[in-house]
């Protein structure tokens, strides 16, 4: 496989009744390998392995540091004025669901 794919997401596929492994990086085929029947150990091309190890070991990351937990901020809800609806009748009748959606005929007891 192309050593520049180290750390990238690749897809690996072996067709049914095939002994060839195809590795894709995006839409590009980056490797084709013939599988060895019964192989249990990884098989590396020596040049690819050296390049992959150099890439993987050459990465530098900032050192980890402990970050203390932040103090919980006090949550205060802003004062809101009362809702004024003005004059009027705000009583609402219960909806007639049978009239709107049609009755199923059951009595609500699972019958």
Q: Notable features of this structure?
A:
111 residues; single chain; alpha+beta
Map the helices and strands.
Layout: E1 11-14, E2 20-25, E3 28-34, H1 46-58, H2 97-101
Antiparallel strand pairs: 1-2, 2-3
Descriptive overview:
With 111 residues, the protein is α+β, with helices and mostly antiparallel strands. The chain is built from two helices and three strands; from the N terminus they run βββαα. A three-stranded antiparallel sheet has the order 1-2-3, with no helix packed on it. β2 (20-25) and β3 form a beta hairpin. The chain is elongated. The two termini are 64 Å apart. The relative contact order is 0.11. The model has no long low-confidence stretch (mean pLDDT 79).
Total helices: the number is 2
- Alpha-carbon distance between the termini? 64 Å
User: Which stretches are low in confidence, meaning pLDDT under 50 for 5 or more residues running?
Assistant: none
Q: Residue share in helices? A: 10-25%
Rg is: 33 Å
Query: Describe the biggest sheet?
Result: 3 strands, antiparallel
In round numbers, the mean pLDDT is 79
Overall geometry comes to elongated
Q: How would you classify the helix and strand content by structural class?
A: alpha+beta
Strand content is: 15-25%
Looking across the biggest beta sheet, what order are the strands in?
1-2-3
